[in-house]
């Protein structure tokens, strides 16, 4: 009887193990099926962004300042820019006058300190030698040259007439900048851009899900209207020669 019970118990355990193996294999297959679906269903990000906001801003200390990682440094930079704008724009102070007055004050203080040290029986102040490193100037010049050449290449591509959408976008952007430039001078425009860099990225990083959802709806509506305009008007405009065509 005992041997008969043991023989009946063995298939029961085998059935239980087979059940767990089949359930685990089915769950693994479900996970493998769900992975491609999760990859395909990507979340819409503004301007097709795939990287974090910190990486898009270049990373490092500048991105930390724009995203207020260190509130004291970011507040100090924004406060310094505000002080410069108030000094030159509201108080109508001139840059050349500021440079001359700062040099007069610093030279007078160092001169008086050097002469007073002889009466106090102290060594005169060790004035450091200031010089601009050659590597820094060369790197800045090369970076500026690269950006200017890239801008010229983009303008040349737009002027060739191959991409009408990009052409209209650039024309609209330049027109908006011309309108803004007629309302304020370059310093005010630079200060506005500087303030936006310190406010818009940090607000977007905080509310990026809501902003991206709204941007997705707005982009869909814009594509609908653009398709109508393109079908009625823009498609009838002749385009320039393609890149593959040899002259």
Automatic annotation (TrEMBL):
Coiled coil: none annotated. Residues 62-247 form the Reticulon domain. GO terms for biological process: response to bacterium. Residues 1-36 are annotated as: Disordered. It is a multi-pass membrane protein. The keyword Protein biosynthesis does not apply. GO terms for cellular component: endoplasmic reticulum membrane. It comes from the Eukaryota. Residues 1-21 have a biased composition (Basic and acidic residues). It holds the Pfam family Reticulon. The keyword Glycosyltransferase does not apply. It is found in: Endoplasmic reticulum membrane. Keywords: Endoplasmic reticulum, Membrane, Transmembrane, Transmembrane helix. InterPro entries: Reticulon, Reticulon-like. The chain crosses the membrane at residues 73-88, 94-113, 167-197. Its main location: endoplasmic reticulum. PANTHER family: RETICULON, RETICULON-LIKE PROTEIN. This is Reticulon-like protein. It comes from Ananas comosus (Pineapple).
